[in-house]
Amino acid sequence: MMEKSVPFTEEQLERIVAQFPTPFHLYDEGAIRRNARRFREAFSWVPGGFANFFAVKALPNPHILGILKEEGMGADCSSLPELLLAEAAGIRGEEIMFTSNDTPAVEFKKAVALGAIVNLDDLTHIPFLEEHAGLPELLCLRYNPGPLKKGNAIIGNPQESKYGFTREQILEGYRMLKERGVRRFGLHTMVASNELNPDYFVETASLLFDLAAEIAERLGIRLEFVNLGGGIGIPYRPEQSAVDLERISAGIERLYREKIAARGLDPLRVVMECGRVVTGPYGYLVARVLHRKETYKRFIGLDASMANLMRPGMYGAYHHITVMGKEGRTEGELCDVTGSLCENNDRFAIDRMLPQISPGDLVVIHDTGAHGHAMGFNYNGKLRSAELLLREDGSVRLIRRAETPLDYFATLDYPRLREDALATAARSQE
Ligand SMILES: *Cc1c(COP(=O)(O)O)cnc(C)c1O
């Protein structure tokens, strides 16, 4: 069995669990910081300074945003609460990218009030933004290359995608903006999700550099930056390897010289808005085994469910599982690892070979640092788990408490539920 390592020992984890009951997501701060520095370093050639605007949706916790800000990242937001999170974490003005779609007026207003870089998704959003918030001096437009670019499995074919301007529309968009007094411009596209092939991002840069040149030639507009979007994948499976950021960077730098510098279009800043690759590999969902059940198949039932990590149930995504204290065992058994939701695809693994598991074992599900807790939900009365930060000195900090039934009932105007929830909570403290 191929293994992936965890940044704690079984004893350490038992101590953490004694203080914070399972299930919870645990994030490795040191690893997040080291990775953020490597990312920035890989693109240090970029004129005006490379920046990754962390996609807040991947891990919307202000403590994490604060750490990433310290490591030089901005925030990519697409809703009002995400803007509020970025603001609260001290991310300011043009450190915030607002890449939304089907956007309500109130969200545009907030983004403009914060001085964020607004990234428009459609031609009709230009008059809409002008009417509701006024046009800021800097605007970015989201390009959908349609048939010019093949999408990948998760995000699908660009032609079918709901995002962005067509090629004709985007040229018309910049013309309209220029006419209406906008003076600074960016260009964005995002055509991949969880993509492990580095060349894919180099091709995306090539597409944007060519379009930047065309915009300069046809409209006399010099772009200030291109935003390659997010979508860098991570090795969920133990036999996969991480995307080589240096290779992406070197490929883009070569194209920059050919297509931008050689045409006198530099400086053109290059930025990204990755989420998954920034925090994904450094989060772990920790759960306890409740039951072992043998029917037509063997089921290992955890105290976590699909409500804590939706990706396996939703996309059939692979997440590696380590059984603490049983790492490295060569003999194993085939099992399905499930949660308690009344939903048959509530499974973290199907037909997975794992060491023999007993009730009470601690199980660690890997790569939950992005689109993990964030995708959680309350269906079936399931409560969202806590989030913990494993600090560089080995201590652990609670950065989001677990929900209680009171949180679940909080939006109901029904006092009896509140009293019952409080009474139950009091009894469980006795
Ligand atoms: C989801 C999303 C991202 C982040 O994607 P990752 O796969 O987490 O890197 C970035 N930009 C936009 C517009 C998105 O929708």
Describe the structure.
The chain is α/β, with parallel strands linked by helices and 430 residues long. The protein folds into two domains: 27-279, TIM Barrel (Alpha-Beta Barrel), CATH 3.20.20.10; 281-425, Lyase, Ornithine Decarboxylase, Chain A, domain 1, CATH 2.40.37. Helix content is 33%, strand content 20%. It is built from 13 helices and 17 strands. Strands 1, 10, 11, 12, 13, 14, 15, 16 and 17 form a nine-stranded mixed β-sheet that branches. Strands 2-3-4-5-6-7-8-9 form an eight-stranded parallel beta barrel, surrounded by five helices. Helix 8 packs parallel to helix 9. The radius of gyration is 23 Å and the shape is globular. The two termini are 44 Å apart. The model has no long low-confidence stretch (mean pLDDT 95). Bound molecules: pyridoxal-5'-phosphate. Pyridoxal-5'-phosphate binds next to loops. Pyridoxal-5'-phosphate binds at residues 55, 57-58, 76, 99, 190, 193-194, 229-232, 273-276, 370.
Q: In a nutshell, what does this entry contain?
A:
By secondary structure, the protein is α/β, with parallel strands linked by helices. The chain folds into 2 domains: 27-279, Alanine racemase (TIM Barrel, Alpha-Beta Barrel), CATH 3.20.20; 281-425, Lyase, Ornithine Decarboxylase, Chain A, domain 1 (Beta Barrel), CATH 2.40.37. It is 33% helix and 20% strand.
Question: Which features characterize this protein?
Answer:
single chain, 430 residues, alpha/beta, TIM Barrel, Lyase, Ornithine Decarboxylase, Chain A, domain 1, nine-stranded mixed β-sheet, eight-stranded parallel beta barrel, 33% helix, globular, binds pyridoxal-5'-phosphate
